């Protein structure tokens, strides 16, 4: 997983500070991140002209700012390439920075009265000076569920259309008015026709690529239930055993990969 972990500390409390030497400048263009040649980050001391710095967050003593660095003739890479970036806490910063960039660019104008929004000074929010509308960063909740049957086999899937082509687990966005457990049960039924029970929470993970927070569960599909594939979502849904190591996505970033890997290791 690409989250920050000990000994590093992610400070997301909104306390804007002026940039200092060593601080990192994040810049994006649509779904691309803009970096220096060699895939290194721009630092405050690289910039000699007056530009706008929007404070994002801090990891340990390094502040991160959102800037427009097109004028620096950066290289432009799909944000997905940051999944495997090292060190991991910088991958996490780049992806979380993209989440905030996407939110800021979608909230330039008030959705209620169309006036230009301004940044709130006390918390991370955009405020409409005309009607008072206050907009906080948007987080789209997602649920992922690792389903096991009575033979201790795991259900793995492959998406029908998504760019991600490795094995995955049943997943979907949580709808308005339902809990994460209800969403897991509904998604399992919709995507595979399976009725699941005995849900156990595994862990959660921020996932900036889809501006999400992912809740994960392990669940049971009892009896010999038939898989009915929802073929516009999935092209494969099959049971595998702990010996089927070919299904390991070997993707260091995702919690799905961690769960499949742990199952194959006999730990899930
Ligand atoms: Zn307004």
**How would you spell out the order of helices and strands?**
EEEEEEEEHEEEEEEHEEEH
Number of helices: 3
Unreliable sequence segments? none
Mean pLDDT across all amino acids? 94
What summary fits the major beta sheet? 5 strands, mixed
What percent of the residues sit in helical stretches (DSSP H or I)?
Answer: 10-25%
Strand order across the biggest sheet?
1-6-7-2-5
Write down the oligomeric state: single chain
Whole-Å distance between the termini?
16 Å
Please, could you describe this protein's structure?
It is globular and about 65 Å long. The chain is built from three helices and 17 strands. Helix content is 16%, strand content 31%. Zinc ion is lined by residues 110, 112-113, 115, 128, 130-131, 133.
Write a brief structural summary:
With 268 residues, the chain is of the alpha+beta class. The protein has helices spanning 88-106, 180-192, 255-264, and strands spanning 10-11, 24-26, 28-29, 32-35, 42-43, 54-59, 62-66, 75-78, 118-119, 126-127, 134-135, 140-149, 154-159, 170-173, 197-207, 212-221, 234-240. The radius of gyration is 21 Å and the shape is globular.
Please describe the structure with a list of short key phrases separated by commas or semicolons.
16% helix, 268 residues, alpha+beta, 31% strand, 17 strands, binds zinc ion
């Amino acid at each position: 997983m690409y989250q920050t972990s000990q000994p590093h500390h992610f400070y997301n409390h909104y306390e804007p500070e002026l940039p200092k030497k060593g601080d990192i400048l994040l810049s994006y263009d649509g779904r691309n991140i803009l970096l220096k040649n060699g895939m290194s980050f721009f630092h405050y001391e690289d910039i000699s002209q007056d530009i706008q710095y929007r404070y994002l967050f801090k990891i340990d003593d390094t502040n991160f700012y959102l800037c427009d660095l097109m004028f620096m003739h950066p290289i432009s890479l799909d944000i997905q390439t940051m999944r495997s970036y090292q060190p991991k806490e910088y991958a996490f910063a780049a992806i979380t920075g993209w989440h905030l960039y996407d939110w800021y660019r979608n909230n330039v104008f008030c959705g209620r009265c169309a006036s230009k929004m301004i940044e709130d000074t006390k918390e991370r929010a955009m405020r409409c000076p005309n009607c008072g509308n206050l907009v906080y960063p948007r987080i789209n909740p997602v649920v992922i569920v690792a389903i096991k049957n009575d033979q201790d086999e795991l259900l793995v899937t492959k998406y029908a259309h998504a760019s991600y082509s490795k094995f995955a687990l049943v997943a979907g966005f949580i709808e308005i008015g339902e809990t994460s457990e209800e969403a897991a049960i509904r998604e399992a039924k919709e995507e595979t026709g399976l009725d699941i029970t005995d849900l156990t929470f595994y862990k959660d993970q921020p996932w900036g690529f889809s501006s999400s927070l992912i809740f994960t569960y392990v669940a049971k599909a009892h009896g010999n239930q038939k898989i009915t594939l929802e073929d516009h979502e999935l092209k494969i849904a099959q049971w595998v055993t702990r010996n089927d190591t070919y299904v390991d996505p070997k993707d260091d970033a995702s919690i799905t990969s961690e769960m499949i890997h742990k199952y194959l290791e006999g730990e899930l």
